[in-house]
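Annual report, structural modelling task.

Input specification for the C2E complex:
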Amino acid sequence: MTTNDDRSGPGRARVLDILLEPASLLEATPECLVVAAADGRIVYANRRAAELAGYPPEALHDRVVEDLVATEVPIAEAAPGTVLAGTCRRADGAEVPVEVHLGSVEGPAGRYLVVTLRDVSELRRGEAARFEAEAKYAALVEGIPAITYIDPIDPDQDSIYVSPQVAELLGISQREWLEDPYCWRRHVHPEDIDRAWEEYREACRTGRSLSHEYRMVHEDGHVIWVSEQAFIVRNERGEPWLVQGVIFDITERKRAEEQVAYLAYHDKLTGLPNRALFEEMLELALARARRHGLGVGVLYLDLDNFKLVNDSMGHHVGDQLLVQLAERLRGCTRETDLVARQGRDEFLLLLADLERGVGPDPGEDADVAVAASVAERVRDALREPFRLEGTEFYASASIGISLFPRDAQDGETLLRNADTAMYEAKRTHPGSYVIYAQDGRDPKEHLSFTTRLRHAVEQRHWVLHYQPIVDLADGSVRAVEALIRWQEPNGGLVPPGEFIPVAEELGLIEAIGDWVLGEVIRQHLAWREEGLEIPIGHNLSPRELWSPRLADRILERLREAELGPRAITLEITESTAMTDPERTLRVLGELHAWGIPIAIDDFGTGYSSLARLKHMPVDVLKIDRMFVRDVDRDRDLAGMVRAMIQLAQSLGMLPLAEGVETPGEYVFLRSNGCRYAQGFLFGRPVPADEIPELVRREGGLAPRLTVAR
Ligand code: C2E
Ligand code: MG
Ligand code: MG
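The model returned the following structure:
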């Protein structure tokens, strides 16, 4: 068979013959080819088809094509040229998704069916995966509480996509959003839109991703906080093309954050800023002050008697006190000042932007003057009692003041100095305020009258003086009136007229009255020891009279001392008695029933009605000094005093003239039937130890009158 041609290799025609030999060509194609006769019997299947079906090639021969491939339309009925979706049944029983391309050729024994099978399992898998991914993505995008959107870079073009959550978050439909390029902008909070829009455009310009928070307004008007995260998609030229973003509702988180921030910077009980916030504000105030040459003041305040409330009335009452105090402190400062709670019963006041220079008082700086005036205001605010569970409680506070730049350059030192000054105030005079002084000068003490008075109550800086009351018949001393004086530590004696009204107002009077009563009883017993039985007049102020425990208190004291009721006489001014006559009548009635004598003091200065007076259980009518003075020289006065004496007598009361200073007055009173008198003419109020001598004096205290010849 070897020819020349053979040696020179096969010719082109020969090559074509070999290549075009049907079988070899069909075996080389990557397609799975099956040729079947008109009745469906397989006459040829290439290697690829056998592989797909999992059979040796010859094993496919004589099988029916429809055993091999199942299609939706039977292959025999389908027209050539159609493509059917089908399943190839493999020898091992597995099924492979295939695309079935149908063709036909004319052969020696008629028409043959050419079936090309394409394995589409990869494709299907990809499709399934894509479908799944899309479903997942949709579930994700449309299931999260967020708006997902795709916008063109051009802000004037319509949005491309928005998830349905716009309805829930903003109360608008997807359509509205998609058809209105300004929809988002219209729903951003007016206070945030400028910033949010600027940030959004910045991201579009630079292509950098965007992350910001702002407020949006729902169609129904409620405000939500959102967080927007977006990134820029670029086109094939690398230019920013689309914005893809998510807008989350973070209102809850914001609220929680605000709450946390609030709690971190505020005191839970009083709602005031706490020390941390105070320190931050102090730093800001100092920075401002340094820039503008201003002053800053720090007041450190500590309640003096807080422990007392807490211990005696319980913590919840102590808490009430702190809450009420916080409220009052807020009222003592300017809008720009800060009141903070430092802890327990300690508070801080920040006075910012203080003008410096000379203050209203020469020698005092303006900033010092302002700080001092705030401290005074705080003390004034504490003048009123606190109402705690139905009872009144008076609180005082010690205050330390420190000023920038006067005594410190930084916040920490300022606070420390104010603290030091506060302790100085507490140590020396609780209830006062002290201004810190760095260079070893004594801190300046500022004690208000009320503070000093409170001290006096605590330390009982009282003395009683006694004024003799004489019987005008013989000048003998029949009784004395106890008159209180306030012995100030620096030596002065303060008369009662100067502090009794204030003590009344401050609620200190009962404590004072208690002391007086105790002292009066003690003194009465002391004189009794000396063999003297001297009734003592005890003055009651209005508030004492109204005190529900008055009668019990007095009777108890008398019983304790084993004293009879006539040891004391209670003096009530006419105006007090007539303020609430019914009540007076009840209180006095009870005391009188126990045998305690009652005197109406300062008679003539109030507005008694005779009818009322008639029913009062009164033993002594003390005619006020106003009527006694010059009574012997003034005919009108003389008439009035005579009428008063007669009135007393007709009501069964003993008339007593107050403030007798001259012999003329004395003579007038005696000759007009006044039974008793007191006044400088007989004796000034004196310390207790001078009284026995006056009582024992031969001939009494009446003046010896020389009769002019
Ligand atoms: P009062 O009860 O009318 O006391 C008489 C006042 O007249 C006393 O003043 C006394 O010193 C003054 N006085 C007496 N004789 C004369 C006189 O001849 N000429 C002048 N110009 N004054 C005379 P004092 O001690 O300053 O007391 C003033 C008021 O203070 C008392 O008036 C009384 O209402 C009140 N007070 C005094 N002690 C107490 C007290 O222990 N408790 C209460 N609640 N009030 C008191
Ligand atoms: Mg009196
Ligand atoms: Mg009087």
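The chain has 29 helices and 29 strands.
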